[in-house]
Specification:
Blueprint lengths: L1 E5 L5 E3 L7 H7 L12 E5 L2 E5 L1 H4 L9 E4 L1
Parallel strand pairs: 1-5
Antiparallel strand pairs: 1-2, 3-4, 3-5
Length: about 70
């Protein structure tokens, strides 16, 4: 499971295959909610936080130890 939080339609834990990307995680959480800022994404892993915009993080792999935050 990957936790998707912030401006998505259905925030929470989503089940994804092992090779899933951030784009797939956001889609599994119902897609973007109104007010989502595509230039303010965070991908948090155990020891690191990647911040950026949609174009730099969209194809980033996610894993069960990740959480995604869309501001």
């Amino acid at each position: 499971y990957v936790t998707v939080l912030g401006y998505v339609k259905t925030p929470g834990a989503v089940e994804l295959p092992g090779d899933a990307t951030l784009q797939q995680a956001l889609a599994a959480a119902g897609g973007l909610a109104q007010g989502a800022q595509l230039d303010r994404l965070q991908l948090r892993r155990a020891l690191s936080i990647a911040q950026g915009d949609w174009t730099t993080l969209v194809s980033t792999p996610v894993s069960s130890s990740c959480s995604c935050w869309l501001k």
